[in-house]
Write a structure and sequence with these properties.
- Helices cover 11% and strands 51% of the residues.
- With 274 residues, it is mainly beta.
- The strands form two sheets. Strands 4-1-6-12-8-9-10 form a seven-stranded antiparallel beta sheet, with no helix packed on it. Strands 2, 3, 5, 7, 11, 13 and 14 form a seven-stranded antiparallel beta sheet that branches.
Length: 274
């Protein structure tokens, strides 16, 4: 089940109580399992035409270790177009960057689609867990000329198909009415998932880019997204990273320096008396 906006706000407020000098990441408890995968949807992705270019880079962070694979051109020729692993700590997650560009009339990027899948399991018989995921999204689309359009978007949905997070940027130089030139996104960039004892759940995301240039002009799409574990809580208590308090104690002067300063002070006092 997903956490309400009020509960999410409370978790975010608790996260702010972590000392500023806290460092490192928080490991997932042993009885909380999270797996993730990110892959090219080759069934819905097509080769560019007319001189357009498109590319995709998939990334996965597991236990702080980052792996990535990149592709360009025709998705039908892309091999090993997926990454999957267990997510082990805060900061772990999945990501993708999709680009599309065209500078020649009649050029078209027919679409690169990326699928995300997250599966979560609470193996505990007594603990309730909550995980806050952060969506880091940068979505830029530009289209110029008499006849050009570009679209880039991402939508995150839970198992009941409720939208948890989205970003949608589209530009159309022909159809300039409402909805054709817009850049909209979720009000917040985080969402939370709660797991009761013994519960399993999942959520997915779809990231896409496509567009076309049919007269002199320019088309450029670039959408970068990462979905990462941000906060982990057990029974309403946020797990905190290791805390290393700042050093406040003074360092004692070396004994030789203390003696030297004492001697100089004595000489100055004697000179003043004479």
């Amino acid at each position: 089940m997903t956490i309400s906006a009020r509960q999410l706000t409370a978790l975010a407020a608790l996260a702010l109580s972590v000392p500023a000098w806290a460092t490192g990441t928080v490991a997932l408890p042993a009885d909380l399992k999270v797996t993730g995968s990110v892959s090219i949807d080759t069934a819905n992705a097509y080769a560019p035409t007319g001189g357009a270019s498109q590319s995709a880079t998939l990334s996965l962070t597991s236990g702080g270790s980052i792996s990535s694979i990149s592709f360009s051109g025709d998705p039908a020729t892309w091999q090993l177009a997926s990454l999957s692993n267990h997510l082990l700590s805060s900061g772990d997650g999945l990501g993708a960057r999709l680009t599309l560009s065209a500078t020649q009339a009649t050029a078209e990027g027919r679409g690169v689609f990326v699928d995300y899948a997250f599966n979560l399991s609470n193996l505990s018989s007594s603990n309730t867990y909550a995980i806050v995921f952060n969506g880091l999204i940068n979505n830029v689309v530009t289209a110029t000329g008499a006849d050009a359009y570009g679209i880039a978007d991402i939508s995150v949905r839970d198992a009941a198909n409720n939208e948890l997070l989205f970003s949608d940027h589209r530009v159309d130089t022909v159809n300039t009415g409402p909805g054709n030139n817009m850049n909209v996104a979720s009000e917040g960039n985080a969402f939370a998932v709660q797991l009761a004892p013994g519960q399993q759940t999942s959520f997915t995301a779809l990231q896409r880019t496509w567009g076309g240039l049919y007269a002199a002009g320019n088309l450029s799409n670039d959408i970068q997204a990462q979905l990462v574990i941000d906060i982990i809580a057990v029974n309403g208590v946020i797990l905190q990273p290791p805390v290393i308090p700042p050093i406040t104690s003074t360092v004692p002067l070396p004994s030789t320096l203390t003696l030297a300063l004492s001697g100089l002070f004595t000489l100055a006092l004697m000179r003043r008396r004479t």
